[in-house]
Automatic annotation (TrEMBL):
Pfam families: TctC. This is Tripartite tricarboxylate transporter substrate binding protein. Keywords: Signal. Residues 1-25 form the signal peptide. InterPro entries: BUG (IPR005064), Bug_dom1 (IPR042100). Belongs to the UPF0065 (bug) family. It comes from Limnohabitans radicicola.
Length: 330
């Protein structure tokens, strides 16, 4: 076979493969879709997934099966998605915790945030500024004055997190840095033990994803809710000050969103199909009611171009905070 014939055959094979790929993308989905949740069943991430999977399946006309794969701060589930074909049949439900912070904090995580593409955001968890019940402060400003006094006495206040490199660890370190007040990090293996020690007075504060359980704990006098890290008072938590109402932390507003991701090289036609289906799912009354019941801020569906910008800006923001506190992968 001469060189010209060989090149012609290779070209024809490439065109045929491309045509097959386009046809598969146009027929997507032709089988069930897996929704990867990076934590065990029973937690908030799992609850969200099981609110979404059935309505999403109706939009896609195929079952959406929830798979719970915990471990390494969500990185095991993320890596499973990356190891699968780039065909859209593995959808990852994640947040900055798993896809932005995990690679920065854990040396064993080898993927980059840019290996994923954000298809839609479902909602955001509000962050509460929680304190032990007997702390001598009832506002954020009073707490900071107290924390400053304790630091000068060589007894810095403590803040809880769900582990080194987590979003809540970064918030605590960032709080210490922007106020110039020394604080001591107390990491836990999850939210439950952190809550237990906050209630027991073993840790001073916890910047935590806010749920209705904290409303009950505050009413029972077992913790204090000093503020919400929101720009303004929201209807669902209007009894608590927004962080912007404080004098010393006016720009310390944060939340953490949950979204749906695919591998970055997933065919555009598949991404468009998933984006349309997820957008319609977010308009489902049952999904919206479920998110509100769990104190989540319902996301406004965004076009793909804007989602890329949100993800890029979020990645830059968290990398900036990690750099500012000298976060090193362990």
């Amino acid at each position: 076979m001469n060189t010209t014939s060989l090149l012609r055959r290779l070209l024809l094979a490439s065109v045929a493969t491309l045509g097959l790929g386009i046809a598969q993308a146009q027929n997507f989905p032709a089988k069930p879709v897996s929704l990867m949740v990076p934590y065990p069943a029973g937690g908030l991430s799992d609850v969200i997934a099981r609110m979404v999977n059935v309505p999403l399946g109706k939009q896609l006309h195929q079952p959406v099966i929830v798979e719970n794969v915990g471990g390494v701060s969500g990185a095991i589930a993320a890596q499973k998605v990356l190891s699968a074909p780039s065909d859209g049949y593995y959808l990852f439900q994640g947040s900055p915790n798993e896809l932005i912070l995990s690679p920065l904090a854990n040396a064993a995580v080898k993927f980059k945030s840019e290996d994923f593409r954000l298809v839609q955001i479902v909602g955001a968890a509000q962050i509460g500024f929680l304190a032990r019940k007997d702390i001598p402060a009832n506002t954020v400003d009073e707490f900071l004055d107290y924390a400053r006094k304790m630091a000068k006495e060589g007894k810095p206040v403590t803040y809880a997190s769900v582990g080194p490199g987590s979003f809540y660890h970064l918030l605590g370190e960032h709080l210490s840095k922007v106020t110039g007040i020394e604080m001591t990090h107390v990491p836990y293996k999850g939210g439950a033990p952190a809550n237990q020690d906050l209630i027991g007075g073993q840790v001073d504060i916890y910047l935590a994803p806010f749920g209705k359980n904290y409303v009950d704990l505050q009413k029972e006098g077992r913790i204090k809710v000093l503020a919400m890290l929101n720009k303004e008072r929201l209807e669902s938590v209007k009894q608590y000050p927004a962080i912007t109402e404080s004098k010393q932390l006016k720009n310390f507003d944060f939340n953490i969103w949950t979204g749906y991701f695919v591998k970055k090289d997933t065919p555009e036609a598949v991404v468009q199909t998933l984006h349309k289906a997820l957008t319609e799912t977010l308009n489902d009354a049952g999904v919206r009611s479920g998110l509100e019941t769990n104190s989540l801020l319902i996301a406004k569906p965004l076009p793909l171009a804007e989602l890329s910008k949100v993800y890029s800006e979020g990645t830059a923001q968290f990398r900036g905070i990690a750099k500012s506190i000298n976060l090193q992968p362990q």
